[in-house]
């Protein structure tokens, strides 16, 4: 029998909506169910909620879960606790208290909510960087190296004590910055000190930080055409106007700039050592020309050297930063391709006179980089393991590149011209003339379980739709064999290649 004066008749008849298969925690599900019942009036203001003991019996839910859900309701003002009496629906629930529907439920947001113009452009333009299924030729996969994995695990154990951790240095751990400075001096000719290095969450944060410090909304940036999409999106989100210059076998073509057809930009964004996505290398004369133009016109150059470690023929061409005598180049790199993307460790090298500005802006974007990962990588570099790891990885990637190029040529020479890269983890193929719609090829290939990326989605002003990008990092022999057979079927099953359509 319910004690006199306790109004729990309606609430005791209430049954919450709980989905055992949902990934949402049970307290959260129960809270949402109770809140919706309150918002809809099924649990009216002033109504006493069942005691945790009674609710546990009736709802078949543990008392701990019920207690936690009640505490959330009380904290958010939907319920009140009365000492010695119980928990009651609050008496002052607004009439328009919002019902919370399950994510994705129909009608959850009947009115479209506005987002920024830059966000809208990114939504409609793409491509997305959502995690992709590990299908043949997906870009960005990382080859696993068992020896390196053991070393990283052993080093990580040294740094697992968080008892005395606090916020780290704004720029990152000094030991890692010093190790990166030493590595870049030997491998890329980059002349810098540890004080010029900022540790970032991969290349993307380095680019965002550089654009924020160097540029004002409304400024103009010159990029390569086609261009690495996340860099272009980052510029858009910072309010920067983008102008594309075409890329040929010698890299970005600056003829329009030098001829005065385009006014000098505030900054350039370039990938000179392995142009993404085409794969061309900026020639030495053009490197020197770009540096001279930037000096003469007070332009900044953001050099993205994202996979400089993976060169398969000849010696690497000197970085722009290594050739720069006017301190106009900011240099960024990452350990995502060479070690693990999940470590989220990249770096940005800035001119000495800009360090103060970057230190001032960095905390507004990210207080400091995570120290644990930094210390692990610092030890890995300082103890000399990185060069041997790169040699093993480079050889494995070279074999994957050669295998993929060979199979593509054997099975699809009629339709594809393979552009063999001297560096990197992706290769580009170009139409021989039998097809001209790279987006349609990509869609048809995906239906067959193969990922090939259309370069036209990365165009700035170019109308070229005749090229595709294929990744070969972490590509096994079996995947290469199966993937090229499936891709060959895509072409062989299509009657007309003039405007190739999926299916």
How would you describe what is shown here?
The chain is an alpha/beta fold and 503 residues long. Helix content is 39%, strand content 13%. It contains 17 helices and 14 strands. It has helices at 9-13, 26-39, 52-59, 63-75, 117-125, 146-158, 174-187, 202-214, 229-237, 255-258, 284-297, 320-323, 355-365, 371-382, 386-412, 438-447, 477-492, and strands spanning 79-82, 86-89, 197-200, 220-225, 241-248, 251-252, 267-270, 300-304, 329-334, 346-349, 416-419, 426-431, 453-454, 467-471. It has an 8-stranded mixed beta sheet, sandwiched between helices. A 4-stranded antiparallel beta sheet has the order 11-12-14-13, with helices on one face. Strand 7, helix 11 and strand 8 form a beta-alpha-beta unit. Helix 2 (26-39) crosses helix 4, helix 3 (52-59) crosses helix 4 and helix 8 packs parallel to helix 9. Mean pLDDT is 87; it is low at 1-8 and 499-503.
The CATH C-level class name of the largest domain: Alpha Beta
Spatial extent as radius of gyration? 29 Å
Beta strand %: 5-15%
- Would you give the CATH topology of the largest domain? Aspartate Aminotransferase, domain 2
Which assembly state applies to the chains in this document? single chain
N- to C-terminal distance: 68 Å
Q: How many structural domains can be distinguished in the coordinates? A: 3
Global outline? globular
Mean pLDDT: 87
CATH architecture of the largest domain: 3-Layer(aba) Sandwich
**Structural class computed from helices and strand pairing:** alpha/beta
Helix content: 25-40%
Number of helices in the DSSP assignment? 17
Q: Which segments are poorly predicted (pLDDT under 50) over 5 or more consecutive residues?
A: 1-8, 499-503
Order of strands, main sheet, comes to 3-10-9-8-7-4-5-6
Q: What's the story with the biggest beta sheet?
A: 8 strands, mixed
Number of extended strands: 14
In CATH, the homologous superfamily of the largest domain goes by the name: Type I PLP-dependent aspartate aminotransferase-like (Major domain)
Pfam family, one: GntR
Protein name: PLP-dependent aminotransferase family protein
GO molecular function, one term: transaminase activity
InterPro entries: Aminotransferase_I/II_large (IPR004839), HTH_trans_reg/aminotransferase (IPR051446), PyrdxlP-dep_Trfase (IPR015424), PyrdxlP-dep_Trfase_major (IPR015421), Tscrpt_reg_HTH_GntR (IPR000524), WH-like_DNA-bd_sf (IPR036388), WH_DNA-bd_sf (IPR036390)
């Amino acid at each position: 029998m319910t004690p006199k004066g306790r109004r729990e008749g309606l609430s005791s008849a209430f049954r919450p909506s709980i989905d055992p298969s949902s990934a949402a925690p049970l307290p959260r599900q129960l809270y949402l169910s109770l809140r919706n019942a309150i918002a809809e009036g099924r649990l009216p203001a002033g109504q006493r909620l069942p005691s945790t003991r009674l609710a546990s019996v009736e709802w078949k839910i543990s008392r701990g879960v019920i207690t936690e859900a009640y505490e959330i309701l009380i904290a958010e003002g939907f319920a009140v606790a009365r000492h010695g009496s119980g928990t009651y629906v609050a008496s002052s629930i607004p009439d328009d208290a919002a019902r919370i529907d399950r994510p994705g439920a129909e009608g959850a947001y009947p009115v479209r909510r506005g987002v920024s113009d830059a966000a809208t452009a990114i939504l409609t333009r793409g491509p997305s960087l959502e995690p992709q299924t590990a299908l043949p030729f997906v870009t960005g996969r990382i080859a696993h190296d068992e020896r390196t994995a053991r070393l990283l695990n052993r080093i990580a154990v040294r740094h697992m004590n968080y008892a005395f951790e606090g916020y780290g240095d704004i720029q990152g751990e000094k030991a890692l910055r010093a190790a990166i400075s030493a590595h870049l001096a030997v491998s890329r000719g980059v002349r810098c000190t540890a004080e010029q290095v900022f540790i970032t969450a991969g290349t993307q944060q380095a680019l965002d930080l550089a654009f924020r410090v160097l540029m004002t909304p409304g400024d103009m940036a010159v990029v390569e055409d086609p261009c690495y999409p996340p860099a272009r999106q980052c510029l858009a989100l910072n309010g920067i106007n983008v102008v594309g210059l075409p890329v040929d076998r010698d890299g970005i073509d600056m003829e329009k700039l030098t001829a005065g057809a385009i006014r000098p930009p505030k900054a350039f964004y370039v990938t000179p050592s392995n142009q993404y996505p085409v794969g061309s290398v900026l020639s030495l004369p053009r490197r020197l020309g770009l540096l001279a133009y930037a000096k003469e016109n007070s332009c900044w150059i953001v050099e993205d050297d994202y996979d400089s470690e993976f060169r398969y023929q000849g010696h690497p061409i000197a970085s722009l930063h290594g050739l720069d005598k006017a301190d106009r180049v900011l240099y960024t790199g990452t350990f995502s391709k060479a070690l693990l993307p999940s470590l989220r460790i990249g770096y940005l090298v800035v001119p000495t006179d800009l360090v103060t500005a970057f230190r001032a802006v960095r905390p507004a974007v990210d207080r400091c980089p995570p120290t644990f990962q930094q210390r692990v990588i610092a030890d890995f570099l300082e103890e000399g393991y990185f060069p041997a790891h790169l040699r093993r990885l480079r050889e494995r990637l070279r074999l994957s590149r050669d295998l993929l190029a060979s199979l593509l040529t054997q099975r699809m020479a009629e339709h594809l011209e393979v552009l063999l890269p001297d560096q990197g983890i992706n290769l580009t193929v170009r139409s021989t003339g039998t097809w001209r719609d790279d987006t349609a090829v990509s869609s048809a290939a995906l239906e067959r379980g193969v990922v090939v990326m259309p370069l036209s989605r990365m165009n700035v002003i170019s109308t070229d739709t005749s090229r595709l990008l294929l990744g070969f990092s972490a590509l096994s022999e079996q995947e290469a064999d199966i993937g090229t057979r499936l891709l060959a079927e895509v072409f062989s099953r299509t009657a007309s290649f003039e405007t190739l359509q999926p299916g």
